[in-house]
Amino acid sequence: MHMFEFDPHTHTIASGHASGATITDMAKKAAAVPLKMLGITDHGPATPGAGRPSYFRNLAFSPKMRLGVEVLYGVELNILDASGSTDLDEEILKNLDYAVASLHPQTFRPGTAAEHTDAYINAMENPYVKIIGHCDDVKYPACYEELVKAAVRCRVLLEINNSSLSPGGYRGDTKANAADILNWCRRLDHPVVLSSDSHGTGQIGDFRYAYALIEETGFPRELVLNYSLDSFKKFIQMR
User: Fold this and answer.
1) Alpha carbon separation from 174 to 58, 138, 185, 187, 236 (Å, rounded)
2) Tally of CB atoms within 10 A around 99
3) Is the N or the C terminus of the chain less surrounded, counting Cβ atoms within 10 Å?
């Protein structure tokens, strides 16, 4: 599993409900995996207990290398409505490395598949959003053909979230939805990114369930960006 070079979606104590890990704690675990890069993407301020806007503003001044691991500083934005509104302003987002945008029950009441699809696609129009997080969630069914076509147009990545696919994951049985995402990404020759969504240090760099689905579906290796940090950086910078 150490063939993967980075984990783009992880959470520190600043997410409120994560374990008590600091960014340095997270980097220490990433170095031990080992990973070349760790993405710190704490929950946006609409999440109860999460960091305030000032936390994300200050990330721009944080060291880019910790314990030999490159650290990219981002945010997991909450998508707040079907128009794709999110919970941090451009003034802050422009100084972060990238944003993940996701639907969460605390900030978006589940509705219809059409509403969820609109919410994801409209969030992709935000130029700072580079990844759509865990859109396999069974609470938020969506049209994956439409999502992937929009991702191609907007140059946004859909993540294959290891936490979603883990046995007993709190998003329900997401395997069929994740396989549908992979099917449409393969058909449209669009890359994906694997993430641990680790809350604390415990699962950093652990993609075992996501990787098993990649293998099971025969998804092309060249469309999995985690094999090459350079490819990931080029992708998110081209938009």
Assistant:
1) 35, 6, 17, 20, 26
2) 25
3) N
Sole residue written with tokens 């081209």? 238
Task: Count Cα neighbours of 80 within 13 Å in the Cβ-side half-sphere.
Answer: 10
- pTM assigned to the model: 0.96
Query: CB–CB of 233/226 below 8 Å?
Result: no
For 160-214, the pLDDT digits (tens) are 999 999 998 778 789 999 999 999 999 999 999 999 999 999 999 999 999 999 9
Assess contact for 115 and 82: CB atoms under 8 A.
yes
Yes or no: say if 40 and 72 are a contact pair by the CB < 8 Å rule: yes
With contact defined as beta carbons under 8 Å apart, do 211 and 194 qualify? yes
Which has the closest alpha carbon to 142: 125, 117, 121, 123? 117
| Cα–Cα distance, 107 to 238 (Å, whole number) | 30
